[in-house]
Amino acid sequence: MSEIDSVVNISSTASLSKRKKDKADLPWLRVAGMSIVDEKGEVVSLNGINLSNNVWGNYNYSKRRLERPTVQDRWVLQDIDFELIKRLGCKAVRYAINYGLFARDNPNRESNLVLLKSHIEKFNKIGVYVIIDLHLPEGLDDQNDAEERKKPGNERLQSIFESKKYWADTLDMWRYLVRNLKNIPGVAGYDIFNEPRLPATVDCSMEEFIRKYNELCSVIRSEDKRHIIFVPEYISREANIGERYWDNNKSGWAIDGGEQGIIWNGGFVKVDDSNVVYETHYYQPYEFTNGAASPYFDAKTIERDISRKLSWVRTVGRAPLIVGEYGVDRAQPPEKRVLYLDAVHSTLHKYGISGFYFQYKDSVSSYSDPDTTFGLYGQYAGFCNEFDLGKDFKGYAIDAAKQNGFDLFYENAFLPSMLNPLFVYLQYYGGGCLDVNKPTLFPISLMDNYPVWVKLFNFFHSF
Fold it and tell me: Which domains can be identified in the chain, with CATH numbers?
């Protein structure tokens, strides 16, 4: 299959995407028993895909750190992205934001809201619901935790559950968003935070942890009585003194002496609200899905794990369950990835659980290892900067373009940009590279993910 077909046309299945017709308004959704239903009481599945939207930000070389964007990067959602998502057949997207985009002190908050609402409207017009996902809250989050968890607890960045300021800011941010989105039926609901961690008891007891979950739900309900609230499972906890944990710094087991090591066990928190959906994420076995340290997984174990979570949600939570994230990075070959998806999809289909693939698109460049990406598509978002580095960098840029499946883009856009910087200004910043009718000028590729695309397409149309 040519790059043009795989990026834009996907000619073998494009006609099937006509099943999803543009819609002016989507019906309101709510929870009824163990299901999500529409206004007619008909059961609705929300199978879809995660939009990470580059919420973790871009690397600041002078400060040697990632900086969270206070304005969404222009490249993360363009007209071609809505078209590709429509053709994939998603019923919903899990739309990631970071706290800073809608912080009270962000002078761009109002314009960010305008952009968010325009994206919601575009998705709704193609029949796609939007879940607003606070993917990166203020303070500790699942991205900066990769470094923070190496530190002892008293030196670690505080989470929203430990810092009174961060918690107050979080409540304020959600009040603002909910107040402005409450009348949009095409918003499926609010995913209140992503992959939280239960702090050590000295910093936040389980009782306080549960209270804060309920407080946030109450704040949302004070503004919005109709939308679903998606309540995440916590995926880990900090050890208390005397507890045993695996110390990655020493590659061995340790007994906590107050350093608050990380224990990778999680659980659900029951909230006092009837219009909620509980959410889990599934990447087991981690050695298979992240980095291909192991080539093995077991389909029966996948079903057992997810069915156990479903049992709690149905008997204790008395609500539906969704799998908010699942996926495999490109370190595994495509044939392994699709086998894993078959196993996950089979379980989701058997139990009627909606799932969201992680993720739609990654930024790739000469600096990124393509094996570490989860994205169905890759976008060569940094090529304009790379050609500026001069001829000595050209070989690296060419290799990266080819390795990530951008051969036609390289020939039609990257090479001319090397020769003529004006081409970049006019084509990329001027919008020419963003023209869906000129796919070879658009720096986006399905890479080696066509088999994955087919599996997702079939799953999204299965129930």
Answer: 30-461 (3.20.20.80)
